[in-house]
Every structure is written in C-alpha cells, then in structure tokens.
Amino acid sequence: INADFCSIAKRDSISEHLYKSIYIVDDFENRTYDFLKQQNVRILGLPCLLYIIDHSILLHTFTFNNVYSLTLFKAIIVFSGFEHERKAELSRLTKLAHFMGARVKLEVNRSVTHLIACDVKSSFYQDAVGLGMDVLNLDWLNYCWSHRQITKFDGTHREITANFRIKAFTGLCLAFHGFSPSALKEMIEIA
After folding, report:
1. Is the Cβ–Cβ distance between 140 and 116 less than 8 Å?
2. Where is the BRCT domain (predicted)?
3. 3-class DSSP state of 26
4. What is the pLDDT of residue 19?
5. pLDDT along the chain (191 residues), means of 10
C-alpha cells in the first residue's frame, strides 16, 4: 500500500486512480471522506482493512462500501419506534450501522438479528420477541461506534448485547396501588 493509496493530500493526484482504487481513510467525519463519497468510490476505514487482512478476505469479494469498521459485521438490524420528528436521528443511526458493517432492513423477518427499539410499544417489538432476536436500545449503536477502532471488537457478542437489552416495560406507564412502601420500592426497581 503506497502513500497515494492511503493519503489524499492533493485532489489532483487522485483523478487517475479515483475509480479503480479502494480508499482507506482514518476518519469518516472529515472533508476527505466527504469528497470521496461525492466521487462515488469505495471507501474503507483502517479498522475494516485490518479486519479484512486478519481474516484473509479477498477484497474483490468484499462488496461493502463506506465501511469504517466491521464492529457489526454479523448484524442485520431493523429500527422501530421512531416517530416522524426523530427522522434525523434515525438517519444518523442508520448511517452509523452501515459504517460498522451492519445491514439495515425495513421489516422484521427470520434473517434479522437485532431490533433497535425506542420502547416496547414499537411496531416490531412483539414480532422480534416472538422470533427470539435481541431487542436493544439506542445506546448499543453508540457504544459499538465508540469501539470502532478496536479491530477485534464484536458488537454482536452476547456479552455486549446483554448490557443493552431493552427492559420489558420501557416506554410504558405503570401504576401501583395498595402496596407497602418496601414492596412498591422493589417493584419500581424491577420495572
């Protein structure tokens, strides 16, 4: 890998190699990335490249584009419970999922591995629980993104997802009546 491949100091120098190269960048939140994305070229982050090398994946068979890391390489995600006013947040989270190698679907089916839900009232929650998939809160994606530099980090590992499972009563309003203060305190902690 030469310096022209990894570094884009001069925009003029990339024109001849622009469409037949894979560009490795150190950050997906800068002008270099934005410029390359506008050129519709293949862009990978260094953690993604290191994972590919580590696992002997042939680059011509690796069809993902604009992937920074493979933190969520095994994940097929559906988002649920985002109201219209949260559309910008949903767009940002979808982009993060793609940057970490996840695939995002619109419907829950047997191929989906994770549902990210705002609450248990979300439209796909019951389907996801019935299919036995992990139903996680939004913090999971942000946590995985914060570990994107760690090549061997697997955000789909059970030890990770267990910390981000949505609680059974998230988003619901519960009313307790007639319980002793100690019993009430215990139920509130459980809920």
Report:
1. yes
2. 68-158
3. coil
4. 58
5. 44 57 89 89 92 86 86 94 83 95 93 88 79 90 96 94 78 67 78 62
Structure tokens at 122: 């979300």
Q: Which domains, ranges and CATH numbers included, belong to the chain?
A: 16-68 (no CATH), 71-190 (3.40.50.10190)
The pLDDT value recorded for residue 3 is 42
Q: Indicate the pTM of the whole model.
A: 0.78
Rounded distance between C-alpha atoms, residue 100 and residue 141, angstroms: 9
Q: What is the SS3 assignment for 137-165?
A: CCHHHHHHHHCCCCCCCCCCCHHHHHHHE
* Contact status, residue 131 vs residue 102, Cβ threshold 8 Å: no
CB-based contact 53:155 (threshold 8 Å): no
20-29 — which CB contacts under 8 Å span 24+ positions? 22/59, 24/49, 28/66, 28/68, 28/99
Structure tokens at 186: 């215990």
Q: How far apart are CA 105 and CA 114, in angstroms?
A: 10
pLDDT of residue 132: 85
**Per-residue 3-state assignment (H helix, E strand, C coil) for 36-56:** HHHCCCEEEEHHHHHHHHHCC
